[in-house]
Amino acid sequence: MTARVRRRTILAFLGPAVTALAAVGILPLGYAVWKSLHDFNLTRIARQKFVGLDNYVAVLGDPVFWAAVGRTAMLFVIAVPIQIALGLMIALVLHRPGLGFWKTLTRLSLVLPMATTYAVVGLLAQVMLNQKYGVVNQMLGWIGIDPINFIGDPTNAFIAVVLWDIWQWTPFVALVLLAGLSTVPPEIEEAARLETKSGWTILRHVQLPFLVPSLVAVLILRTADTLKLFDMPFTMTRGGPGSATEFIAVLIERVGNRQFDIGMAAAQSIIMLAITIVLARLYIRLFYREVR
Amino acid sequence: MTFKSHISAVALAAASLAGLAGAAQAWSLEEAAKPYAGTVVDVVFLDRPGYNAIREMLPEFEAATGITINITTMPYENALGEQVRDFVAGGDLDLALIDLVWIGNFAENGWIVPIEEFTSNPDLVDPELDLEDFFPLVLNAFGAWNGVVYGLPIDNYSGLLFYNRCMLEEAGFDRPPETWEELKDVYGPALTGDGRYAFALQSKRNETQSADSFARMLWPFGGSFLNAEFRSNLNSPESQAGLQFRQELMAYMPPGIVAYDHAETVNALAQGDVAMITEWSAFYTTLVSPETSKVADCIEVAPEPMGPAGRKPALGGFSLAVATQADEAERAAGWLFIQWATSKANAETYLRKGGVPARQSVYQIPGIAEEFKFVPALVESWQEGVPEFRPRFAEWPTISEIVQEWGTKMMLGEVSIEDGAREIGTRMEAVLEDAGYYSGEKPLVQ
After folding, report:
1. What is the ipTM of this complex?
2. Where are the extended beta strands (E) located within B20-141?
3. What is the percent of chain B where pLDDT is above 70?
4. Per CATH, the architecture of A54-287 is what?
């Protein structure tokens, strides 16, 4: 009897969460997998047919898809290490004792970039980086630098997206690492400070082991965020000029929402999901260690 | 037949005719709409002057008919996707807002109703409908597919040459260029320098690149997207000449022109930074208003320059059609709204509120051409446009994406004109092959 009550209680607690997860996650995912096995274009719905793995074969052999994957990887490889480095610096400064008011103010201001909607960030960039009327070029002009064609030049546009991503997400990394630093037992840290004056030694041997879980979380979240980065580059450059800022999510949106090829877009999304899962598992296996 | 019965028959016929004539005379929007009072008609509008004009006029229609027009406003970029998803899912939309390049898609999928369903119903058709009053090119291009009329033109554009008369006069010109060659070779060098440029061609990677930039340079030079067999015509000498011309013209455009959308281009002229632009007629109000233009008094309008193959200006615009998924009352109510919004009677009001009607009669009203400077150029352009300026079949959105990517790469010099055109051609033919044009599954209609 007790066991039955317990099972019911467990079901009552888990049921809503499992149902919600199934409704918003598992069912749409299943539907996407099913559609990825079909030639399913909204503009020729009458010709819909099952094509097996044809869409996957087409995606895996498509140079446009791999170019977008490469661009996304490049963005990740450049932006995330900078975000971690800057975020760690900010976190270490905020972790030091003293300057209470200013630290509170800094913590608050760190939330602002994250709280700004991605699409708005992209629109702001488009206006601020305008070669003729943008405030960034105006400020560069004050120090004698000629206006830079940020949005109309492929290389500059890519760099602009990287810089904007760094601006928006460094604070997030800083706050996560600051939380990680607060898990370092104060007595261990104080003992280490008595032993050495080298901040690097303390960071390397005392703080870093406690930061590993935070760093893995940052890597997993930033990898997922970068793979699905869409709003900001879409409103800022729309993937251009040429294909310079066509990241994988921008490409998938183009195929699904502008070419209406839902089957192909679903196959691209499932492949990206697989890559994300593999990367996340890899991070956990390579980097994550329980701190004892 | 007796005399009496003769008289009776004649009287009956006369009475019938009088009744019919009376019915025709008596047709009114109020009477026609009575059975549909209380009906709600859902439609997508854009945030553009023509739609704002209709919105301002709408209370009059709703008061007269009791029909409610429920408008969802969205940016152009979202309008196609939202409507396609709504029609595929059997959603709420009762009317379809159709860019001329979407008409093949909507008609072939059976999402819109031919207007014949309504024009054959005397209860619903306004005796003053007069389809022949629409500019034939506009009605055919915006509202018809494969010889069947589905929609009536509601928001109508032609490409026009907007120019800063003051800048041209300063450089010694007393008229705008008549040909593209003249624009590049004579006006280009004279008007470029000191941070100012002779011309700006909006070329951002979206429909602007494929329609306003790429296609604009094909047609006046005798080029086209497709030949008669629906194979790529982009590597023909004429198409190549047009695309090469665009490349050379970039010497007289602001740097970063591939990032210029309509807003940046219109603003560049309005700020006095460029001397000439080719833009849609709809931007006239923005350019001549002192609130939005520094050079409002200097703005003049002319038809787009001619190329070796003639003027062939850019053609764009929207029609409204009744959606198949609407029920009977919504169809009738929707039709009455379309008919009213595009009517001869409302054309002048629509024009004065910022819209551009496709009715020929309104442009013949004395004083209109003088009051609205773009009118003569617009009327001339609508005599010389090509309906397939951009192919209007269902595959255009896919092909447009290809043109946007490779057209931008050409302008950036990342690929040669010839190789870029070949790449677009190969991809375009693959799309058409897949759609069934080469197997005879689909007719070669664009």
Report:
1. 0.73
2. 40-45, 68-73, 95-99
3. 94
4. Orthogonal Bundle (1.10)
Q: What is the interface size between A and B, counted as CB pairs within 8 Å?
A: 80
Which chain B residues have a beta carbon less than 8 Å from that of A243? 405, 409
Instruction: Judge if B279 and B329 occupy the same domain.
Output: no
Mean pLDDT for A43-60 is 90
Q: Among candidates B310, B336, B311, which has minimal Cα distance to B322?
A: B336
Phi and psi, residue B373, nearest 5°: -65, -20
The domain tally of chain B equals 2
Q: Closest to B401 (Cβ–Cβ): which among A42, A43, A259? A: A259
User: Which chain A residue lies closest to B87 (C-alpha atoms)?
Assistant: A42
**Interface subset of A 214-253, CB within 8 angstroms of B:** 237-243, 246
From the DSSP assignment, how many helices (H) and strands (E) are in chain A?
Answer: 14, 2
Does B83 contact A at CB distance below 8 Å?
Answer: no
Quick check: bond before B59 cis, omega within 30? Answer: no
Q: Do A240 and B257 touch (CB under 8 A)?
A: no
Regarding whether B267 and B136 lie in a shared domain, the answer is no
Q: In CATH, what number is assigned to the domain containing residue B403?
A: 3.40.190.10
Q: How far is B86 from chain A (nearest CA, A)?
A: 11
In this structure, is residue B2 part of a structural domain?
A: no
Q: Tell me: the pLDDT tens digits for B1-12?
A: 444 444 444 444
- B279 and B347 in one domain? no
Same domain, B343 and B303: no
Look up the domain containing B147 and give its range.
Answer: 30-157+316-384
Which residues is B153 bridged to in the sheet?
B319
